[in-house]
Design a protein that fits this description.
With 239 residues, the chain is an all-alpha fold. Among the domains are: 2-56 and 68-82; 88-159, no CATH class. 54% of the residues lie in helices and 2% in strands. The chain has eleven helices and two strands; from the N terminus they run H-H-H-E-E-H-H-H-H-H-H-H-H. It has helices at 2-8, 15-32, 38-49, 70-82, 88-95, 112-125, 129-141, 152-159, 166-178, 188-200, 210-218; strands at residues 51-52, 55-56. Strands 1-2 form a two-stranded antiparallel sheet. The longest helix has 18 residues, at 15-32. The protein is flat and about 75 Å long.
């Protein structure tokens, strides 16, 4: 579950990828009903031995505690994950964004049921349904081997949908780092620009500051700039 949580919080996660990962986790948990995982095996063996990493387990400490019904617990996890899988409309999203090897149904063109959902999707993203529908049929005819050009706008739109609140949480964390107590005077416009650079901008090692420094120097944005406000030399004054 930890691996699934980390994967779903990636900034490049898409709906189709999330669907694949959740399905994989469901299958893994279902298998664990008959075959306990590595850590569960370690716990069960330690309880039988009465010792865990050279530490004696006191039987009195577990007295009165209710033992977890592992099959029911695993089934509860499976049901919880399945409730987060795609509904009928979201299955259309997945169908147009995954390869044909992972299609869950066999369809022929024209697939009217899918086209109804596709039309709703186009309305939601304000895209032209006529050209996209043609591309959708071509996509089905070629078995999902290649996404036609006129279908790519809706694919891009679907892949831009957020899967989790990870981006929002990263944004608030970055804002707290940028607008620290000693920089509380930052204006909204400058704060927005700094956040945009931190969240959307390229990594630091890919950024070349030379053009910006050169421009800053050539525009005389320095202490010697004649347009800057001058401060009288007070070194010789006595008080």
């Amino acid at each position: 579950m930890g691996l699934l949580s980390e994967a779903l919080q990636r900034d490049d996660i898409t709906l189709s990828r999330a669907y694949q990962l959740i399905n994989r986790s469901v299958r893994a948990i279902e298998k664990m009903k008959d075959m306990p995982g590595k850590h569960l095996k370690e716990v069960m063996e330690s309880l039988e031995k009465g010792n865990f990493k050279d530490v004696t387990i006191n039987p009195e400490s577990t007295r009165g505690q209710v033992r977890i019904n592992l099959p029911k617990f695993d089934q509860s996890l499976v049901d919880n994950l399945c409730s987060r899988l795609f509904n009928c409309e979201q299955q259309t999203y997945s169908f147009i964004t995954v390869s044909s090897q992972r299609w869950t149904i066999n369809v022929d063109s024209p697939w009217f049921e899918g086209e109804v959902k596709l039309e709703q999707l186009c309305k939601r993203f304000r895209l032209s349904y006529a050209s996209i529908c043609e591309g959708f049929r071509d996509y089905i005819d070629n078995g999902g081997a290649e996404i036609p050009e006129n279908l790519k706008p809706v694919v891009t739109a679907v892949n831009s949908l957020p899967v989790t609140y990870g981006d929002c949480e990263r944004g608030f964390s970055t804002m707290n780092l940028v607008m620290s107590p000693i920089r509380s005077g930052l204006g909204i416009e400058r704060l927005s620009s700094l956040l945009f650079i931190s969240l959307i901008g390229p990594p630091v090692h890919l950024w070349d500051p030379l053009p910006y420094v050169t421009k800053w120097l050539t525009t005389h944005r320095s202490a010697d700039d004649t347009k800057s406000r001058k401060v009288d030399n007070l070194a010789g004054q006595c008080y």
